[in-house]
Design brief:
Elements: H1 2-7, H2 13-39, H3 45-60, H4 71-84, E1 90-94, H5 100-111, H6 117-127, E2 131-137, E3 140-149, E4 159-167, H7 176-190, E5 195-201, H8 205-213, E6 217-222, E7 232-238
Parallel strand pairs: 4-5
Antiparallel strand pairs: 1-2, 2-3, 3-4, 5-7, 6-7
Helix pairs in contact: 2-3, 5-6
């Protein structure tokens, strides 16, 4: 371009304008051609290509970038993780006298097929001889577990029984049962309990699976154990490793 201007210095003003206009037209044509070539890779020619490259660079430094994986897949996975983290936190606390109504109501829903346990558990709760733990989610009670002394012939050993554990039907499969069992076992260790036992319905396979997950072992079947005649499975967990006692 510089050589062309020097060459045109000696030409008259009118000719000079004509030559320059031709030159500018030629230059615009070349730019248009370049833009056409670039437009094959971007929507708006060279400028569009620059924007596209800029967006790619930002995406590769963003929070959802993983080399070799599409951004849509990464963003989808991140969104799923965020949804999983939305689950409300479960807190466990000792039950208070004001919680007796909740214990009564949930017992009726959870154990009605076995007998009138809502009245039985309420009496045990108010007797002061049991330890009851309450599970809360978003500050609302969603489950409870009750621990008491096991009535057996082995009085010399420190044995406790999980008398009941229940979770609101609408809140099941959210880890509440796991949290209650862990806290019951921790409380039993505080009380220097060596072995924790429990009875569960022989047909209640889901509950048995949950108890096995937390170290409980099936022991024996108790025929017609429940008030309405169902059989029960006795399970135990030696929470003190030095114990070799078998029930």
């Amino acid at each position: 371009m510089l050589n062309a201007l020097v060459y045109l210095t000696g030409i008259s003003g009118k000719q000079k304008l004509i030559k320059l206009s031709v030159l500018c037209t030629r230059e615009r044509s070349e730019r248009a051609l370049n833009g056409y070539v670039m437009s094959k890779r971007g929507r708006f020619g060279k400028y569009g290509e620059i924007k596209r490259i800029s967006r790619l660079r930002k995406a590769r430094t963003g929070p959802y970038y993983t080399p070799g994986v599409g951004r849509k897949a990464i963003r989808g996975a991140a969104f799923q993780n965020e949804k999983q983290h939305v689950r409300p936190q479960i807190t466990i606390r000792a039950a208070e006298e004001s919680d007796v109504e909740f214990v009564h109501s949930l017992s009726k829903k959870a154990f009605f097929q076995y007998g009138p346990y809502e009245d039985m558990l309420e009496r045990w709760f108010q007797s002061g001889t049991t330890k009851t733990l309450l599970a809360l989610m978003e500050k609302r009670p969603v489950g409870f577990a009750m621990l008491g002394r096991h009535q057996s012939e082995w009085e010399s050993r420190q044995i406790a029984e999980i008398l009941a554990i229940a979770v609101e039907p609408a809140k099941q499969k959210k880890g509440i049962g796991d949290s209650l069992i862990r806290e019951v076992v921790r409380k039993a260790r505080e009380l220097r309990i060596e072995t924790v036992v429990l009875y569960t319905g022989l047909e209640n396979v889901a509950a048995q699976r949950l108890f096995k997950k937390h170290g409980f072992t099936p022991s024996k079947i108790k025929k017609s154990f429940y008030p309405r005649g169902q059989d029960a499975l006795l399970m135990y967990n030696h929470i003190e490793s030095q114990s070799d006692f078998m029930i």
